[in-house]
């Protein structure tokens, strides 16, 4: 099933909306625990599942969305224009990541976010450009990076300049950490899925006729505003908690 380049695949936006919704829920309970308003175990159980599910879904959909954007743009733009667009888009998101780094340096005694999810997404959008035409290459490379993350998780070095890759110094602590290994592998798997499920900007599968469902429409709207929600939800949550407690 194909749609016009001006239209969007509602299911992708809705899934992104679910991811941002789960992320807001996780951060609400995280802030309750962080400010000692109420104690929660954020490192196991349901809250860990919610937090990780949100991140995994969000990052995976970055790859899917990159293939859709590429398919749409390749109909009317040159490869150079597409690359420049991705470069600007990735740099913009990475810039918001730097803003978060700056804010956490100022307001947190420890736990500064040096390479969080926005840093990852920004860099991934830029360096994923050569992969956007391929399918099986992304599956193989993505799985390699994911499995490489297993030994990388317990690897420590005496310096911090390779934090972005996944090599961290002993005792490193941050509130948000998504290094390229293994998380860029998830982006590549998203690219593989996008090229498999939406070749040439067409669905290769049957989709339920549920676009007008009010819940689907709500999540679809949240998905379209995901970056804005991500940037403002923590200040809003923290502000409300401080105001009412």
Provide a descriptive summary of the structure in words.
The protein is globular. The protein is 65% helix and 2% strand. The protein has one domain (10-244). It is mainly α.
Topology:
Layout: H1 10-34, H2 45-73, H3 79-107, H4 117-127, H5 136-153, E1 156-157, E2 168-169, H6 180-197, H7 214-224, H8 226-244
Parallel strand pairs: 1-2
Helix pairs in contact: 1-2, 1-7, 1-8, 2-6, 3-4, 5-6
Short account of what is shown:
This protein is mainly α. 65% of the residues lie in helices and 2% in strands. The longest helix is centred in the N-terminal third of the chain and has 29 residues.
Could you report the average pLDDT, rounded to the nearest whole number?
A: 92
By DSSP (H or I, 4+ residues per run), the number of helices equals 8
What pattern of helices and strands is seen along the backbone?
HHHHHEEHHH
Helical percentage: 55-70%
Radius of gyration, whole Å? 19 Å
N-to-C terminal Cα separation, in Å?
51 Å
Q: How would the global form be characterised?
A: globular
How many domains make up the coordinates? 1
Order of strands, main sheet, comes to 1-2
Strand runs, count:
2
Structural class: mainly alpha
Residue share in β-strands: under 5%
User: Ranges with pLDDT <50 over ≥5 residues?
Assistant: none
Strand count, sense and barrel status of the largest sheet are: 2 strands, parallel
């Amino acid at each position: 099933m194909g749609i016009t380049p001006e239209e969007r695949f509602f299911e992708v936006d809705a899934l992104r909306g679910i991811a941002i919704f789960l992320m807001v829920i996780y951060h609400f309970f995280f802030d309750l625990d962080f400010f000692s308003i109420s104690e929660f175990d954020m490192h196991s159980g349901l809250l860990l599942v919610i937090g990780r599910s949100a991140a995994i879904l969000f990052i995976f959909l970055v790859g899917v969305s990159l293939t859709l954007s590429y398919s749409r743009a390749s109909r009317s733009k040159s490869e150079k224009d597409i690359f420049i667009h991705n470069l600007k888009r990735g740099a913009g998101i990475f810039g918001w990541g730097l803003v978060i780094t700056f804010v956490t340096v100022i307001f947190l005694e420890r736990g500064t976010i040096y390479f969080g999810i926005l840093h990852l997404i920004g860099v991934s959008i830029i360096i994923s450009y050569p992969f956007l035409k391929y399918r099986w290459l992304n599956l193989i490379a993505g799985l390699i990076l994911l499995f490489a993350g297993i030994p990388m998780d317990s690897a420590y070095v005496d310096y911090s300049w390779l934090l972005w890759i996944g090599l961290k110094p002993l005792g490193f602590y941050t509130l948000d950490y998504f290094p390229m290994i293994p998380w860029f592998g998830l982006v590549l798997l998203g690219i593989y899925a996008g090229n498999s499920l939406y070749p040439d900007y067409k669905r290769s599968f049957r989709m339920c006729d549920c676009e007008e469902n009010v819940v689907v429409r709500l999540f679809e709207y949240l998905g379209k505003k995901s970056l804005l929600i991500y940037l403002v939800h923590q200040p809003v949550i923290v502000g409300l908690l401080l105001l009412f407690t």
